[in-house]
Each structure stands twice: as C-alpha cells, then as structure tokens.
Amino acid sequence: MNQFLANVISGPRRRASRSMYRSRVVFALIALTLTAPVVTAQTVVLSVDASKPGAKIDRKIFGQFAEHLGHGIYDGIWVGPDSRIPNTRGIRNDVVDALKVLKVPNVRWPGGCFADEYHWRNGIGPQRVVTLNPNWGGVVEPNTFGTNEFMDFLNQIGSEAYLSVNVGSGTPREAAEWLEYMTAPPSTTLAKERAANGHAAPYKVAFLGIGNESWDCGGNMTPDYYLSQLKIYSRFVRNFNPAQQDQQQMLKIAVGPGGGEPRWTEWTETMMKAYQQHTWSWDINGLSMHSYTVVKWPPSYASVGFGETEYSRILKTTLDMEGLISKHSAIMDKYDPQKKVALVVDEWGGWYAPLPGSNPGFLVQQNSLRDAVLATLNLNIFARHADRVRMANIAQMINVLQAMVITDKEKIVLTPTYYVFKMYVPFQDATFVPVAFDAGTYTHGDVSLPRVDAIAAKDANGKLWLEVTNLDPNEAVEIEANLTGISVKSVAGETLTAPKVDSVNTFEAPTGVVPKPVSARVQGSKVTLKLEPKSVTVISIEN
Ligand code: AHR
What we know:
The chain is an alpha/beta fold. It contains 12 helices and 27 strands. It has an 8-stranded parallel barrel with strand order 2-5-8-9-10-11-12-13, surrounded by 5 helices. Strands 16-20-21-27-23-24 form a 6-stranded antiparallel sheet, covered by helices on one side. Strands 17-1-22-26-25 form a 5-stranded mixed sheet, with no helix packed on it. Residues 67, 111-113, 212-213, 347, 395-396, 401 line the site of alpha-L-arabinofuranose (AHR). Alpha-L-arabinofuranose binds at residues 67, 111-113, 212-213, 347, 395-396, 401.
C-alpha cells in the first residue's frame, strides 16, 4: 500500500463513524483511480560486504577553500573586532559555530588566483598594506585578514592550514621567508616578529601548495617551466616547526591538471615522470587537480529558478569527475605504483552564472538541493578512489561558488551543501566498504543518469554507515540492502530532500532544505528503506 493510500485510510478513522469512514474511503479510492496512477517505487538491491574493507576514506577529502574573493573572507569570516556582529578577535562567531560542526580537516588559503599575487608581508603586523584585488572585481584588499588571522580562524574552527604560496609573481625567497615567519622556533628575527605580532609558538602548516593553476592565472607556464619552479620551491620553502620534522611533516602539493584534454595529460605526465626520477633535494606528496561543474564556459546555468533539464544536465556533467580521476590516476600509477603521491582535488563544485545584481567578479550564487546531490556524487567518487584521492577542497567555503554558508551583514544561512558535509562527518577516516548494485536509469530528455548512487564505510567503532542518493527527481526508490559480514541490531538515519530541484535555504526561510529523520526496517541482515525523489540519505547500522 502506498503512503498516500495509508494516510487516506488512517486519517478519517479517528473523527468519523464507521459508515462515514467507509464511504469516504470508497470516494477517496475512486478519486485516486480517476486522477492519479498508483506508482510503485522501483526497488534497487544493494549488496554491502562489510567483510571486505577497502582503503581509508581520508578525512582530508572534506577540506574547504577560502579565497580573498568577493565576500569569501571579508564579511564571510572577518568582520573586525569592532563590528557589532558577534566576533572573537574579528572572526564571526556564527560562522565559526557552523563550521565547527563539519569538523573541517583543512582550509586552503589565500587562493586560488589570488595566491599568485599575494605578498604575505602586506598582511602581518599592526600596519597593514592596502592593495587591490585585480583578479576578483578590482576591489580594495585591506589585508586586515592575514597570516595571524587565518591561523586564528583555523584554531577557532579546529582545522589545519593548507597554504598556497605565490609562484606566479613572488619569489622562492619570499615564500621561504613566509614559512620561516610561521614555523621557525622563536630564535630567528622572523620568528621574533611573529612573536611580536602575538604568536610566540611556531604555527603548524600541514600542507603547502606550490602555486595555483600555473598553466593559467598562475602565470601561463608550460609544464617544463613550472616543473623547474616546483623543484626550486620544493627545495627551499622549508617548514622549521620542531613538531613537524619527523612526524606530521608538511605535505607539498604541486600544481596538476585542470581537465582531461591532451594538454592536461601532458601536464600530469611531466610532473609524475619527474617525480619518479626525483632526487633527495626535492619532493612532492600531492598533485592538485581542479575540476568545476560548469557544462560550458562562461558559466551560464542559473543557481536557482531552474527546472529538471538544468538539474539533469548539471548532474551528468558532474559525473565526469569519475573519468577525470581515472584518467589522471592511471598516469600517476605508471610513475608511482605505490601511490605515494595523492591526487588532491583542491578546487571542485558547481559554478553557475552570477546572481543578478551581484558583482560578477564576486562569484555569488545560490545553493540548491541540486548542489546537495552534486556534492554527494563527487564525494562518493572521491571515496571510491580513496587509495589515490586523499585530499579535496570544495570551492568555496563562504559566500563564493558552492558555499557551505551564505552571509549578509549579520544574517547567516546554511546551504544544502553544508548539510551534506554534516551528514558525511561519520565517513571521515572511515574504512571504505564495497557496495554492489544495479543503479537503474533515470532519463530526462537526452540525458540518462544512474537512478541511484551509494557508498558504505565502517567507522573506528565498527559501526557501518551507508549513503544512498536518489537522483530521480520524480520517483521514489525502495532500497533493499543485503549486508554481509555484519549483524544488524538497529538502524537510524537522516534524509535531505525538498519539494523542488532548485529548492534553497534563504535568510527568510532557512530550513527549506534540512535533513530529517528517516526510518528503515531491519529483517535479519536485510535493511529496507524508501528514498524520496531527489534525496540524499545517510543511515548508520549498529551491530
Ligand atoms: O575558485 C575560483 C577560481 O577558480 C580560483 O581562484 C582559481 O584557482 C580557479 O580558476
């Protein structure tokens, strides 16, 4: 019996006499027969084998990216200590509280394209140097949010630093001095300057990005030219933090590809071939990859106010991530079969047309249920490639592109993407568990997509977590998960859906797209649950 019929039958029972009730049911059944075909949800069978654990889903794939771009930093994170918006040393409390929940493993900063024009000295000490931000709207860059403020922000949200150093317009010396300023024990002049600026102890810099898109906004370099720069920066930009010498060493990430075409495969080939032959004097631990879901440049799809055609096309395009990762992983496997170098997808997400009336250089867009589905599809692809993809950073954290949080002065709203990251917290550092299924097909016009996507993982306490996405915006799906290698005691979970593919959370209505509890049935080792159309569901299976 479908849910609607069940409601029709049970609803009037409490209020009406038996005969009234009977006639209403008959009327309701006739009405239903005449007006709506009874739709039976498709069933998708998942085989989850918890006895065959795979790679660890590195929590670093849930990383974020905060660039000096539009209101990503200023207003989004930094309001200054004198603001009437509640803050701690200038950093918004509401944003910190929201981000803490996500257990953000790392934040990439200060860019993006901004990084290759950033000069760190402008952003330290009591007197900041005011510059411009030519990449993003040509606006004034006050540099009031600099190194110390970034590290304070990380400390407040409980995250780690992923610094991008300036290769495009900086020098190896400038980058080396930045790292000395941040990490040297308090004996050097630069470390004393750091102490004078309020932080005596060395900072921990967990990740170092050597340039950004050096094939484009980072300096239009050829692979060979960038490679020679990479070797110099890798050699001289040192981390002196005593706590990061033997353990927790800073990981160095080289610029990698930005697509799948021959120029990008040549780029990956060049970096990885050199890595295979690298000597003691330089090294890398990661190769970056950037891939936005755009369909075609310049981004023209609307971020709100769209229908099923745009929904299905964007999701089809986002699934290209799978082929892109496979392609570059195969090249990496050739030169690094032991998978020492991680593929770091440090810019990904949906990139749409700027919201009407916004500064086009600020990359302002809404964030809808479609983006929640898009995020799960990408996170699931990263998880399936957990042996190579060990870090990723969604673009971007606040107010820019596919953000977690949108602010406007004192107002704040959490996006559907925020809730996906929240629902995925249990997958951080969990062990991948294989799920086999026939996804079926959802078709709209000339676009065909898998109806369902799913991943599973086991956390450190042995609890099994299952994520299932129903891409179909019209039809519910019955999931029958057959579990091997685990006995089931109880199941609990949440689902994220909304009435429309472009449903959003707004300042006025912030709870349009928020997770709600979902119920599942357990029969021996079988778990069944119903997925609403266009929904993201995470359940935990207690054993
Ligand atoms: O995220 C916006 C921009 O996209 C970044 O600055 C750049 O690296 C990429 O092209």
